[in-house]
Structure formats: C-alpha cells, structure tokens
Amino acid sequence: MPATMHLLHTGYVGPETDAGLHVGSTVVYASQGDRHVIVDPGLVRSTALILDPLAACGVDPAEITDVVFSHQHIDHTLNAALFPKARFHDFAAVYRGDIWRDDDAEGRVLSDDITLIRTPGHTNEDISTLIRTEAGLHVCTHAWWFEDGPDEDPYAPDAAVLAAARDRILALDPVLIVPGHGSPFAPQ
After folding, report:
1. Where are the strands (E) in 18-83, listed by range?
2. Is the N or the C terminus of the chain less surrounded, counting Cβ atoms within 10 Å?
3. 20 lies in a domain?
4. Cα gap 14→151, rounded to integer Å
C-alpha cells in the first residue's frame, strides 16, 4: 500500500510586529506500514497545532518513528522533542537518544515510499522528503518557501545551487510540492 501524507500545519512568514516576526513551518505527517514520519516540526503558535491534527489522524506522538529536518534552522526543528521515540534525520546523520550515526541523506529510505534526497539551496544542507502516495509523488522541501517564491531566496548561499535543486525536484514529476512556509501546491 502506498504512503499517505497529511498536512498538520500550514506555515507562514509575517507579519512583523513589535514582538517580532511571526514565523511558522509547514509540518507534515506521512505514514506507511509501521513507519510514522513527521517532517519539519518547527515553530508554531502552539504545539496543539501539531498534536491535535496528528491525534485526528489517530496517531499518538510516541508512535512517531522518524522526524525529518529539511534543514537545521530552528523554525523547522524547535518541536522535535514532542516525539520522544523517534529517530531524527538531517542531511548527514541519523540521531536517536545518545546515538549519532553518520549517514548521508541522499537516497536514505524510511519506507518503500518515503525517502530522502539532498537538495541544497535554501542552505547547503537542505534535504527533501519524497512521499509516493496513490495520487502521485509529494515532495516536502524548502526549495520553495511558498508557491509564489520567493524566486530569489534571501538566505540561499548560491542562487544557481537553489535553481538546480528546484530543477531536480521538478524532474521527478511531483503532483504536489509542500513548501517550507506555505500551502502545498501543484507545480506549474
């Protein structure tokens, strides 16, 4: 049976107020068989905005087997501790408890239909989560912040590297892109 994907929280950037800039990451839950995966459990107004939709999927946080960080910015990692039994994945390693295992994310398999690839761009360490569902390929990535860009990522160390990552993702023919801070969209 193919993987399933559920949007738990739609991210955003702004507005900026006297208190500071409001930032929320897009948070996804994917599953297949005994694998239960959270992607980018970062900044949200309240942890209930992650935990309540997860509960609506019939999943307890202790059942999460894997947490994926698209990159190591705090707005995508802050709420990782909500998932105490998970393995944590980034571009270069897998972490669990006090175990650190070096393992390049390129081609890392979490389940038959949930895999990771390297897609540097927003940072040099970015990865994307590929989720093959009945509807087609869904890609959770920070190669885009939102459907409409920004075309030039203000944090990207190299615009050409980001463009190459976007091209790589689009060449996979995804039916849905789940950007770092916005609603999922069908690529044009």
Report:
1. 20-24, 27-32, 35-39, 66-68
2. C
3. yes
4. 18
